[in-house]
């Protein structure tokens, strides 16, 4: 009996030792991958930061309105945020590769999903950034056009243009990420429809006098206004 | 002529040019739906050529931007026999009138390029461009503009006009003083639809990279003037008389700003080695009056100008923060709060504003077209002050005020240079 227990125990220890002997190289590989990944991610971060500074990405981000959002959220500059984000994504990728090497059942599928999700995440970020850029550009264009055409409340017009573009961009971003696609579609439809209806009602009923003045100014008094301003050239 | 220039000219137009052969004088006439006036304008030009250059080989080239009222046919339909009885002059050479359509919509840059390419192909010694928008073209304009090129070997002749003291405010308050301060030559009308140039200047300008650099081609006339200054060509001015236009385009301020301020700002980068070393300014040789001022009453809605300035300063604050220095913006906000009686946009502040806009345009702090558009309300504020200051002024007083503004532009030029050099 005693020999049997000792035999079983030694066999179990042997199995553990053998299992550990199998696992240890994988663990070392994982740690090496994590370290190499950290170095590569750090180099990528440094390179990307220099590139973004070279192309004045912060200025672009300021024009897009993204910098203002970051400042409100007490976050660093757009260059810093993007380079840090790329660092973490790259390093996490290497760490997950290492974890994959460990051969833990069930984890491999999740890791594969993560890597499949990455391109969609980058596309969504791309859409978001250029969407904000477009919103900034077109809202500023609307503001300038409104001021130079002497329209009433040009800032409201500019804000409306910006809001519509951002709502549209957000709906595209969520769809790309595959988050609550149906909900976002319905929410976008309702928000956009409500906005248009609201504008129509506000302009048609609430702002009847304003609309009348605007239309008169646009179509009736234009010639008179021209005569009142000397030719610039 | 390069392949690029040849491609500007259609096969049919090339054939017409080859039939004409070499010429001494070329008159360029860009048109777009000018059927009402073009017939008499072509007759006037023909009389001008017959009187001023009866022995020279001459051609009138009409470049049309897609007229739908038969303008090109009217140009080619005017024969020399129509003008002989009226002018009592006779041509010793054949006077050709040919026409080409360069596009389906007007584009003054393409029109001028077509004229330049044709002039180079025909080896024209002297060329003049006249605008059918000018409703009072006289036969003398042809020899007044072409004479200094053909006889006195000048390379560019720009016009001076008799104008109302409140017409051309963008010229008198921005383009003339800034061009003069930066390039050192006092040219009153650096951007004009009427001008004349020598064949060698035309060929040199045609070869420049201004056609594909992304700038507004509508302002190419101004670029030609600047190219003549930077290339040290011989430039003079000729007095044409009163400037009358078929259409008043008083409210088209933003396009006018694009054509003047936008073109000037965009040229500054390439021309930096030239203008950065220029100090002071020299008068350009002038035939006839330098500038004459008309004083008759003109109804101007000054109140609206000041209102649009105040609204602009208030509504565009976020844009001005990117373009202007904090001190300039604070000063503009202060004067925007003043009542109509106290409102005054001083010359020094206006010059600083314009220079800061030019530097921001160069840095591209926001879209360059947006920078030009943002200048419009501020220009209206400056126009209000100019109108107020000169309401009861004589012609001499108006000229003195413009001269004062020019000197202010020259005095503050180091401020622009300082901003330019510290652009990073």
Walk me through the structure.
The complex is a heterodimer of chains A (233) and B (424). Chain A is an all-alpha fold and 233 residues long. Chain A has two domains: 1-104; 115-219, Helix Hairpins. Chain A is built from nine helices and no strands. Chain B folds into two domains: 3-294, Alpha-Beta Complex (Spore Coat Polysaccharide Biosynthesis Protein SpsA, Chain A); 302-421, no CATH class. Helices cover 54% and strands 13% of the residues of chain B. Chain B is built from 19 helices and eleven strands. Chain B has helices at residues 3-8, 11-20, 35-52, 71-77, 80-87, 108-121, 140-150, 169-183, 199-206, 220-230, 253-270, 272-275, 302-315, 317-323, 326-336, 347-363, 368-389, 395-411, 413-421; strands spanning 25-31, 58-64, 95-101, 126-129, 156-164, 185-186, 195-198, 235-242, 282-283, 286-287, 292-294. The longest helix of chain B is centred in the last third of the chain and has 22 residues, at 368-389. The mean pLDDT of chain B is 88. At the A-B interface, helix 5 and helix 9 of A face helix 8, helix 11, helix 13 and helix 17 of B.
Index terms:
heterodimer, A: 233 residues, mainly alpha, Helix Hairpins, 2 domains, elongated, B: 424 residues, Spore Coat Polysaccharide Biosynthesis Protein SpsA, Chain A, 9-stranded mixed beta sheet, 11 strands
Q: What's the structural blueprint in terms of helices and strands?
A:
The complex is a heterodimer of chains A (233) and B (424).
Chain A: H1 2-54, H2 57-64, H3 66-72, H4 78-102, H5 107-148, H6 154-177, H7 181-206, H8 208-219, H9 222-228
Helix pairs in contact in A: 1-4, 2-5, 4-5, 5-6, 6-7, 7-8
Chain B: H1 3-8, H2 11-20, E1 25-31, H3 35-52, E2 58-64, H4 71-77, H5 80-87, E3 95-101, H6 108-121, E4 126-129, H7 140-150, E5 156-164, H8 169-183, E6 185-186, E7 195-198, H9 199-206, H10 220-230, E8 235-242, H11 253-270, H12 272-275, E9 282-283, E10 286-287, E11 292-294, H13 302-315, H14 317-323, H15 326-336, H16 347-363, H17 368-389, H18 395-411, H19 413-421
Parallel strand pairs in B: 1-2, 1-4, 2-3, 5-8, 5-11, 6-9, 8-10
Antiparallel strand pairs in B: 4-7, 5-7
Helix pairs in contact in B: 3-4, 3-5, 3-7, 6-9, 8-11, 8-18, 10-11, 11-16, 11-17, 13-15, 13-17, 16-17, 16-19
